[in-house]
Amino acid sequence: MAMAPTVRRRRLGIEMRRLREEAGYTAEAAAEATNMSQPKIARIENARGAAKVDDINALLDLYGCTDPELRTSLIEITKTGGTRGWWLSYRDAMTPIASDLITLETEAATFRTYEHGFIPGLFQTPEYARIIIERLRVQQVGTVEDLVQVRMARQSVISRPNPLEVWAVIHEAALTAFSKNPEIMGPQLDRIISLSRLPNINVQVMPAGAGAHPGMAGAFALIGFPRRADLDVVLVEGLLNSLWVEDPNDVELYRAKFTAITAEAMTVDDSLAFITAQRDKINDLLPQR
What we know:
Blueprint: H1 7-23, H2 27-34, H3 38-45, H4 53-62, H5 68-81, H6 96-107, E1 110-115, H7 126-136, H8 144-154, E2 165-171, H9 172-175, H10 182-196, E3 201-206, E4 220-224, E5 233-236, E6 243-245, H11 248-264, H12 268-284
Parallel strand pairs: 1-2, 2-3
Antiparallel strand pairs: 1-4, 4-5, 5-6
């Protein structure tokens, strides 16, 4: 089964094409100067295959790339572009968007997300994930249990050495849902409380009574990478279609949007107090033993 190009590989192709054009080379001239074939240059720029580090270094030298951070970032993308991750064993159970997301989370340094209807996937318990997947999935790709396993495995990025830094703003509605299922929501809120105490996790609550704010347009995730903010990407999720925002100017708009959302939300301390109070209310609904 052929794998779709990852977002990161597409970003590599976009940057390599930009550098070539800025240096004044045609694809034919770049191929001749580096003893590569023109189809190879096209494959790199169109993300149709994993590039080789030596080829990227040769092209960067030809294009006169003197930005050490950009060079390092592009080489890192090249090195990881052909890496086989654990998730490939589940590729038949995932959409290309989901596969791309997991790849990016594995390589990322930061993850900023606004969720108005659900608990973020990186925070979900298996029971919560199962009920969300069962009730809301539209594309019948993979089994529910496979998808739950994938979602749980994704969460290793927040506890790995040099963990992913996550900043999540969650709407109050997502935290007060499933009132008829306290056995699911109680442990889920417990997990958020526990995670919020980690140094790499920030959780804020968007109150139901908040005024107009940018998050009202929908959920999104801003995924950041080391050293180069212009290589960051945004995932805008939808029920049927999700899309990647890759243009640096558009990504910057989402960065400003997230900052505005955090300003409208409760503080981190007040958010923890709110979630704890909601957890206590949920626990009161459970049968007393």
